[in-house]
């Protein structure tokens, strides 16, 4: 996006990438259909030590601007839940759109290129030594993403460049990532692998209402991925497996109407049997409603509606969709994305300390920040 915008201004642009293919993350995103943006984008959908930083770029190149580009290229797309926009056919459509605009504007893209050293040799003069040659440029844009999915060519180059120029880095961690469980929980929930439940998941004053998914490794699903970005090691996560009902009220009402009914029979109206038997003691499940004490009813509701679990950790960068933290936004102009200390050095996209929620927000940040830098480089 930055290359396209800079080339539109008549700048001579060269993109260097050590990958053998451009835009690998675009291709693998959104299950191959690229969730390229969202109808509803605000700064509240982003995590950063400086929550105001992203506002300017997001308001200057908006989701509507990107949608207009997608429509200009006649790419068919559709909305899924929560305003998420996906390609109808393939993520390739988004990559091809960017590549064809780049090509038309004369942007050069060099793949399979290792960046060995970077030097600032004078004002408006950076020297880059690659595995192939020495290059000089006036503006150097660092757009090399975060640490997520090293197999997809992620590397710490962006942070190393920031360190080299003495720029502050907010410590990084894996975000939008499944949780692994403590050994005893892993064993306890192993039989639930494959079950998805619409839940309300909360941690550190943030909540998400979406599916959670039990897997053979731990917990995943959109609500878990979202909350993982707010979770810190040692924190408990609170999960309401029945967010739409007041279970105490329901059980009390059923106790009046059908006193002979077993607790189990009542609960399987709301949750899978397999799950209930892991959460609630069998003896209690076989009790009739009339024999349940108020305390027992409250304990059942508590177990299912305020399930508290302390993850062992996350699956880490191997499977994380994003990297939390990164180049401190206070080091960079929110208007131009240029470093405040090093003239001519720009940072855009995920390498900055701006992390979006699941739902197309990370790409929108990449498009918006790239567009802004493209107006100034
Ligand atoms: C599996 C998966 C699915 C995702 N799905 C979505 C989604 O549907 N919607 C959404 O909004 N976000 C999604 N994301 C997040 C999104 O892909 C990223 O936030 C976004 O790609 C960041 O863009 P970027 O340009 O900053 O970095 P990247 O897209 O990561 O691009 C960085 C580029 O820099 C290159 N590079 C890295 N290190 C070096 C080096 N040392 N030398 C040379 N080149 C280097 C890489 O090869 C790469 O081409 C997903 C991420 C993953 C991992």
Roughly how many Å apart are the termini?
12 Å
Structural class: alpha+beta
Biggest sheet record: 7 strands, antiparallel
The ligands found in this model are: flavin-adenine dinucleotide
**Which percent range fits the helix content?**
25-40%
Q: For the largest sheet, list the strands in their spatial order.
A: 17-16-13-14-15-12-18
Task: Give the beta-strand count.
Answer: 21
Query: In one word, what is the shape?
Result: elongated
Query: How confident overall, as mean pLDDT?
Result: 97
Explain this structure.
By secondary structure, the chain is an alpha+beta fold. The chain contains 14 helices and 21 strands. The protein has helices at residues 2-8, 24-28, 53-60, 63-72, 92-104, 157-164, 183-189, 222-228, 247-257, 263-267, 273-279, 282-285, 294-305, 361-374, and strands at residues 14-16, 35-38, 46-47, 77-79, 84-87, 108-110, 115-122, 125-130, 134-137, 140-142, 169-175, 179-180, 196-203, 206-214, 218-220, 237-240, 307-309, 313-314, 322-327, 345-347, 355-356. The two termini are 12 Å apart. The relative contact order is 0.19. The mean pLDDT is 97. The structure holds flavin-adenine dinucleotide. Residues 17-19, 25, 28-30, 34-35, 115, 143-145, 148-149, 153-155, 157, 321-322, 349-351, 360-363, 366 line the site of flavin-adenine dinucleotide (FAD).
């Amino acid at each position: 996006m930055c290359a396209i915008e800079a080339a539109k201004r008549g700048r001579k642009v060269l993109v260097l990438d050590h990958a053998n293919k451009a835009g690998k993350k675009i291709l693998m995103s959104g299950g191959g259909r690229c969730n390229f943006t969202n109808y509803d984008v605000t700064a509240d959908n982003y995590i950063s030590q400086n929550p105001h930083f992203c506002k300017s770029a997001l308001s200057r190149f908006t989701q509507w601007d990107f949608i207009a580009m997608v429509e200009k290229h006649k790419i068919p797309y559709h909305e899924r839940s929560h305003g998420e926009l996906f390609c109808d056919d393939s993520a390739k459509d988004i990559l091809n759109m960017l590549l064809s605009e780049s090509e038309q504007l004369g942007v050069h893209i060099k793949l399979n290129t290792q960046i060995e050293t970077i030097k600032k040799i004078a004002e408006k003069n950076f020297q880059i030594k690659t595995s192939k040659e020495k290059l000089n440029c006036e503006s150097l844009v660092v757009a090399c993403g975060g640490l997520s999915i090293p197999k997809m060519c992620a590397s710490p180059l962006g942070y190393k460049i920031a360190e080299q120029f003495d720029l502050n880095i907010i410590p990084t961690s894996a975000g939008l990532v499944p949780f692994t469980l403590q050994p005893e929980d892993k064993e306890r929930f192993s039989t639930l692998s494959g079950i998805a439940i619409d839940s309300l998941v909360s941690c550190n004053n943030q909540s998400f209402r979406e599916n959670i998914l039990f897997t053979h490794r731990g917990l995943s699903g959109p609500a878990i991925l979202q909350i993982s970005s707010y979770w810190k090691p040692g924190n408990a996560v609170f999960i309401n497996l029945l967010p739409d009902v007041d279970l105490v009220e329901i059980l009390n009402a059923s106790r009046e109407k059908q006193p002979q009914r077993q607790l189990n029979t009542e609960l399987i109206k709301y949750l899978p049997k397999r799950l209930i038997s892991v959460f609630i003691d069998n003896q209690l499940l076989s009790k009739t409603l009339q024999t349940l004490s108020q305390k027992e009813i409250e304990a059942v509701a508590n177990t299912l509606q305020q399930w508290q679990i302390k993850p062992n950790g996350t699956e880490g960068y191997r499977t994380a969709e994003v990297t939390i933290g990164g180049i401190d936004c206070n080091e960079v102009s929110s208007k131009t994305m240029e470093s405040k200390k090093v003239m001519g050095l720009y940072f855009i996209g995920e390498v900055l300390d701006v992390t979006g929620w699941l739902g197309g927000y990370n790409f929108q940040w990449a498009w918006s920040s790239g567009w802004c830098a493209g107006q100034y480089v």
